[in-house]
Amino acid sequence: MSYYETWIRRSETINNQQEYTQYINLYYSMEKNAYDKILSAYPDNEEFRKGKASELAGKLGFNKDTMDIFVGFLDGSQTSLKNKIDVENVDDDSEIELDFDYEKLYYNMRDAKAKWLFELPAWKKVLSADKTAEITREYREANIAHAQIIGRNDPCPCGSGKKYKKCCGRNA
């Protein structure tokens, strides 16, 4: 079974709630440590971004027993990478390059509500305070719920072709 298959099986199947919770909490902890290493070494962080999967995993705090979690980390990073990684086929000898779009990574961490990641102090080395504030503003604006107000003389949203006041709005 590949690392990816193990990752999917263990992260998406809940047979034992306690085991599942322990596994996911281990993932979150290792993910946080990996990002902290990558961000803390910025801009000279190439040693944490390129190499054979097993070697890169070791540098980021993953070991042979947690390679499935490392592949989960790679899978979770996909939307923030400039290049794509074929995570389904990653083995120990796969060449990995984590070429992050750091602004997108920060945005995606906010979008995932991963406070333990987007509040890492190491972000101060990567993005300016103004840039993090701008990305936060963009995120909030993109996630504001907008209600469409129907005017009395607008066409009824039910599709009848009548004005709202003569149709569904009659009893409103």
Description:
The longest helix has 24 residues, at 17-40. This protein is mostly helical and 172 residues long. The mean pLDDT is 94. It contains 8 helices and 2 strands. The chain has helices at residues 3-12, 17-40, 53-59, 67-77, 102-111, 115-118, 123-126, 129-142, and strands at residues 50-52, 95-97. The chain is elongated and about 70 Å long. Helix content is 49%, strand content 3%. A two-stranded antiparallel sheet has the order 1-2. Helix 1 (3-12) crosses helix 4 and helix 2 (17-40) crosses helix 4.
List keywords for this structure.
single chain; mainly alpha; 8 helices; 3% strand; two-stranded antiparallel ribbon; 172 residues
Dominant shape:
elongated
Count of DSSP-assigned helices: 8
For the largest sheet, list the strands in their spatial order: 1-2
Residue fraction in strands? under 5%
Care to count the β-strands? 2
Q: Mean of residue pLDDT?
A: 94
Largest sheet: number of strands, sense, barrel closure: 2 strands, antiparallel
The percent range for helix content is 40-55%
Distance between the termini: 59 Å
Low-confidence segments: none
Q: Spell the H/E element sequence.
A: HHEHHEHHHH
